[in-house]
Design a protein that fits this description.
This protein has 1109 residues and is α/β, with parallel strands linked by helices. Helices cover 48% and strands 14% of the residues. The longest helix has 44 residues. A hairpin with a 2-residue loop joins strand 25 and strand 26. Strands 3, 4, 5, 6, 7, 8, 9 and 10 form an eight-stranded antiparallel beta sheet that branches. It has a seven-stranded parallel beta sheet with strand order 13-14-12-15-16-11-17, sandwiched between helices. A five-stranded parallel beta sheet has the order 20-24-23-21-22. Helix 3 runs parallel beside helix 9. The chain is built from 41 helices and 28 strands.
Amino acid sequence: MALHMKKILDLLRDSPGLSAKEIAIQLDIDRKDINKLLYGNLQGQVWQDNSYKWHITDNSSIEIGEVKNVPLTDLARLCRYYLACLGQDDIGISTFAQSNYDDLDYGELNSLPQSTEKLLSEESCQRLLGKIRSDRSRLEMYLGYPTHLRHFKSARWEGYFVEPIFIFPIEIDPTNKTTTLDISYPIINQKILKSFTNSEKDGILDELVQLEQELGIGGEAEIIELDELVMRLQNIRAEWPWSENIDPTEINSESQKLSETNTPGIYNKAIVIVTEKSPYTKGLESELTELSKCSTESLKGTALGTWLSGNRNSNKKIDEENSLPLIEVLPMNSEQRQSVYASYNNDLTTITGPPGTGKSQVVTNLLINAAWQGKKVLFASKNNKAVDVVETRVNNLGPRPILLRVGSNAYQAKLAEYLMALLSTVSTEDDQFQFDEAEIIHSKLLKQLHSLDEDVVELIENRNQVDELEQSVEEIRFRLDDKIFLSFKTMDISNLKADIKILAGLVMSLNKNKVTFWFFRKNGLLRAANMKLKQATQFAENFGLSNPHNQITESNISDWRDFVNQLEEEVNDAESVSKYFIALDKLQSTKNLEDISLERQKLFQEIATNSETLWKLWLRLQPKRLSQEDRDKLAKYRAILEMVIDTDPGERLKSKVFSEYKKIFKQVSHLLPCWAVTSLSAKGKLAFEPGDFDIVVFDEASQCDIASALPLLYRAKTAVIIGDPQQLSHISGLRRGQDQQLLDKFDLISDYPQWGYSYNSLFALASGLSSQNSVVNLVDHHRSHSDVIEFSNKEFYQGRLRVATKYDNLQLVGSKEPGVRWINVQGRSEKPANGSGSINLQEVKAVVDELVQLVLSRSYKGSVGVVSPFRAQANAIRVAVENHNELSRTLIDRKFLVDTVHKFQGDERDVMVFSPVLSQGMPLGSILFLKNNGNLFNVAITRARAQLIVVGDLSECGSCDVDYLSKFAQYSQNLIHSTDEIKQTNELEYGGSEYPVVNNPEQVSDWERHFYTKLHKAGLKTLPQYRVEKYALDLAIIDGERKLDIEVDGEKYHKNWNGELCRRDQMRNQRLYELGWDVMRFWVYQIRDDLPTCIEKIKKWQAKSKKLQ
């Protein structure tokens, strides 16, 4: 032994900074014996740094794991605050050591497993896995070692708790039915710190941070060997109650079981233990700890640093015309396009995306254009489902994936396949030629689109100018006869004005007091003035002015002066009328909105088709853009990746391989532009480097907490935050009072209250940090039947949404049915026997009956879902469906899901059945739950595409105190009346010369009535207020297969027309075109002042219709 000690000391003098493993290899001594000497007999003569490297102790007496005092920056205080919040959200793992019912939540292991296979061979592990499966994945499992037995005594009970010191997650995938043990990152169980310190809950944070630093957990060191970790812990926490020698290689399964032990202490026992799922991952705490050490200077150039400093360049307006052109592999509307441009130009962009407004289209185009423009982007979301959807959508657009998902071995395997394809593919000259051609075409198409945008701007400007001029001549129109007013349209006003000006000059010059030699010159001056009278006199008669005298004489000059002054005023009025007619002619010659809509519709399709071609060719050319050095690095990375993949699940990766993997990943990540990760699983998967990504994109940010976003914001230069505050929000188990105490403890209330853990989501924080120019609202809704979305639009979105749903894409239950149906069921709400919430068994039966009717009797083939606010109700409906064999078998092919709202976030079905449960007898707590969760209702009903079926008590819901529910009950009944009125309206035959009675007279302008009458007089019979889906057409002509919508802008008459109104009209036109309608729009000015041309235009349409028949 002494000889071994001398060899170790001699080696460390010559080669300081060796790990125990390296010492063992060089001295050819078992590592276990080396560790016993280093932590035992040699203690005091050697010391270990935070990287687990050993050194000879010198006279400076360096302490093991010395913790340096670092000044608390704002970020440090925030990180420590979030760590405290996470700690109080769930402070650790503990369970009863004994049970009288043989249902312990832990099981002892015969040895410490180093692989999943060895773990699964343990009987106790299989028992607990069965418990997890029966509990519908509410629990999660950990491997724990070593294990503390804690004694507890109270007035009612005395016993023991089992608390592992280090825990290692055991990941269970219910989809693939696989179990994986991850022993790469040890987690300190905070229950231990609570047991062994006198700290209050928020004081455990300081203990945790210091212990992790002393143990080297959370740093960038190689993977720590478990035996070294526990030996080091024993060394630095000798005061803890160590009851046995802790050695993972010498676990004695024959020793007394913990359930039979009555002596508290820490035992050399390995256990598996189940507990309620934790809201955060193992890596988040360590990354927050690392962030807390960052200086303010080191944050420069990162999105996180920008957020903290407030120096955001997001006040500038985006110049889309001079920005790099976008490729639109998925067609975008103006707001979606603005979102992508803003994302590339702002430090922070916040995008609000209500249901069905195309958030995934924005993300897809944003990611693809980032790669296209040579940027590196990270996509993140709190849940796997959102990441999976975007990954599938982006990668299905090309021959090889571009968005690389990091995480489990399944994702790593995909990455390896991608690298192999990239390195083994050669780009051809033909690929380059096709790409260059497609790029030229793309540029031309974008120019055409820009030209159409300019046409719209010109149309709006011309229309508003006409409206302004028309208002200015309204008083003139009122004074004059229509014929006289219209005559100014063709009158040569400029020459007339010049003649009258000359006449006025001559008349004003007839002043004997100012004219030299008046007596000799007066006759000539009078003759010149009388010669100009003829045209002026004719013009004066139009305005009802009479000449004061037959001619100008010396005696009546004063009367003529008054006449000429009045004449000048009238010619100015005539000039105003003429300007109005000139502007009207210009408006009529401007490309109309209907033609623009048709051209735009066609152009968007061409852009999308060419963009897809361009993108696929860009991917084909990707290998050509790699240098030889790049290829060498990627080949090396792929080889290392294969080693990672080949490692059996749960086995420890060789430290050398792990170290090389992290090293090479940093070198090649810039060559792979798009990455995706869940916000809580970046630790160890992505390099923890400041500003490593150009952009980080957070989806579903309204559900994301701020704490888990900080490490990703640190990794990126700029950020894009996408969410909807009217849908599901961030949920925290931390009580608001606790949160306030922690904010105060870390001195954050004055400067950072908006960063509160339980108070704010990531989306809410970003919205407050964003300037007006960096916030984009998506408003075009494309998912649901208008009957479904219109309620949410008015109740939750202030009517801002523009409904653009293509009904041809909906799998309707019946073409004549409304989008919302309410099936009235007078049941009874009650608290379930086991559990909380409410259940309504009559509704359960009615839901099943409706499903039978829908999918069995009517053979509906679309997807179907059932949602309820209450877990007990959803479970009862699920059981009832499963008990109906034929129904449950049929629903398998309908993507059937019955659950609470949270399971449907980000999902949708053709038909959704909603069970509100509310009826007589509902517990007060359930009513308060409904009242306080309007967002859940918004999410629930907007999952429906074609139809929403509500099965509930109409009377109780309509009269309840839950505001949104009572409004929706009334809304559903109004839809029935509206549907009946539409049927009655559309059954009307062509009427007589007088405008007929309609159901919505308040929406009919006087000009529509006037135009109807004039058209009838001209032999053109129309149907007023004809309903097509959600639209009421001003006037309609149905001539065989051809249909014409005639629109009069009477509603907007004398109102400024803007881009929003124009956009809504374009969307309306587009939908009517899809349904086979032609559209003609007439301005009031045209009907008022050019009626014959308007009538002639409609007659030409009708004549063409007859030729086609």
